[in-house]
């Protein structure tokens, strides 16, 4: 074990979590049902994997300006962003790279085949109902890239009587936001459910870069985002259902590229769509067949010249056949998945603009008294040959409140198109990364008070490292990406939640050591410690809250030459229930106007205020 945690640090982190976990880590015994951890609905109390949910209520009360802001407040997660809410962003789970995470929207896999990561800035927070985050490798369930974890976003779904919800808000930097949703469901044998949402966000923003940057321009870099989404399902007969869903989001954002009068900007189109059918041909077998597409299209306009235009469009197509076979209280899952990736760009020529992956997987979830067990195996076959992954997890309930868990899982990530073919940067000889993760955990949860601790050690081989300057080959002096021998992601996450004198207290702390084993250097833009603390109190029609976000220092580069200082941010929020259907929200982020860095020479938001009013009829 190489992670060095001093006794005072360990005791203080444990005390912090016992006193309070972070705002969005709900107690396990609250009846929450999750899907992502096993690819099938399961009570959160029966899940072995370290999992949290962010509910619709928590999202609406958060006042977060973007999904990145929301994720930054979750345990085990760090972010980086090149400016304001409309600029390029990265999400790191447990010290893993931003392309070590799978992101799903209603079960549809998203992300760029060139960068390997989701375009977080284009994902509209206004369309989201709730979010599930599963920590640790899930390649045995989801295939390539699930090294650090899986984040699944669920859009709004119709149920019950017809209802309308709407929100409008205004804040600093002339940030404007509005959204509305119509949803409901009919009764009877052939019930039909529906939900249609639309939203728009616009902000004048602030300068994306600082004066020390070679790309600095003092102008404001704003963004304009609009989205529409929908879910529809029809109950054909008992046990038989057909449905469709979609999400369409357009983002037009400005960024800096030097002191020029030209309006430098980027445009992104993010889309998902799926058709699915569910059937019970046999009473103990649930079958799902789904066809899904996701698009991640991007354009940049860096100058008026023809060379200032760049286009990269990627598309993923998935066909999934999943059978959940109930054997008593156990579930055997058998899965086939076909994924096709396509890339179209004007930046460089691709000899193979598309690639396919065929996958077969099986998993088994069982409970015997106080014992919980899950096991999974998967085989992915693509242009890299066959990759086999597996996982095994065990949990033991000492009491109804106290559980210990242990798990082991393997994972891999295929090189992206950029890492293989981008001129002067990629290398067709780059190999897939592979991971082996072991972890143990313990948690207490009595439905009101909760505390958990999870220790993990994820050993990566053939990690793809991007560095400037390139140390070898024809790219010397420029950037390049190449496999290094080993890297280790090791850490301890402690979290807790309680209620004292009517105040809900939540806290978490992460102590980690994500490093390149060859050089001993810390992986770029990851701290050794970060945490969150929040408190909220309801009095009459008011709900008042405060948050503290903390992070240690990080390095902006793989060679650990450019240090980014640690920071602490204080946020305040309040909601007021005007009537049964109307409520108001005000949020003040970074009340101390703290200047901090998430990426070198890129600006971050100062003190910002946002207020809004919500209508919801149910």
From TrEMBL:
Leader sequence residues: 1-25
Domain TonB-dependent receptor-like beta-barrel stretches: 185-591
Domain TonB-dependent receptor plug, chain residue ranges per copy: 48-150
InterPro entries the record matches: Beta-barrel_TonB, Beta-barrel_TonB_sf, Plug_dom, Plug_dom_sf, TonB-dep_rcpt-like
Assigned keywords, A-Z: Cell outer membrane, Ion transport, Membrane, Receptor, Signal, TonB box, Transmembrane, Transmembrane beta strand, Transport
BP term (GO), one: monoatomic ion transport
SUPFAM superfamilies (UniProt xref): Porins
Membrane-related topology note: Multi-pass membrane protein
Region entry Disordered, spans: 202-224
A single Gene Ontology CC term: cell outer membrane
Record localization: Cell outer membrane
Alphabetized CDD domains for the sequence: ligand_gated_channel
Similarity section: Belongs to the TonB-dependent receptor family.
Protein name per the record: Vitamin B12 transporter
Organism: Duganella sacchari
